[in-house]
Amino acid sequence: MIGVSLVILLATGLSAVSETLGTGVYITDAVADFLSPEILPFIIFAISMLVTVATGFSWSSMAIVMPIAYQMVAAEGMMESLPIISAAVITGAVSGEHMIPFSEKAVMSAAATKLAPMYHIKTMFFQTITAFTAAGVGYILLGNHIPYWISVIIPLGIIAIVHFIFARSNKTIH
Fold this sequence. Notes:
flat
């Protein structure tokens, strides 16, 4: 647990430095011509996932990405979308954690079930990609100001369709 604590502590320090330097405002200024506000929730979601894949820890990813995302939202004048951006950071971090065998979730889950972490990730990968795709569609819809209920129903439909296509029956033949 010392390693996990150290990563979280260092990520918190990096988060404070990022906030003090105005990293989010700088990034917003640098990419403002290429980035539309409609796609920002999805971009934040994907970046949070990639930071988790790079670091291996969802908590550190949240500590690094959250202040930058908040500064980007403030710089774009999109404060009404702050809950959506917060959700994008958190769900992106958790999605990334389900994709790597060295994350704390994978190591702890694999140890608890006496499986190799790589095998655990292999069993989770298809579900993670499905959930990532559905959430990504939801964030794109939310970024385009589609009503919340539609932005929930469509991703649920994607998950249901994938489930019914790939689910197998557990019935045994006697």
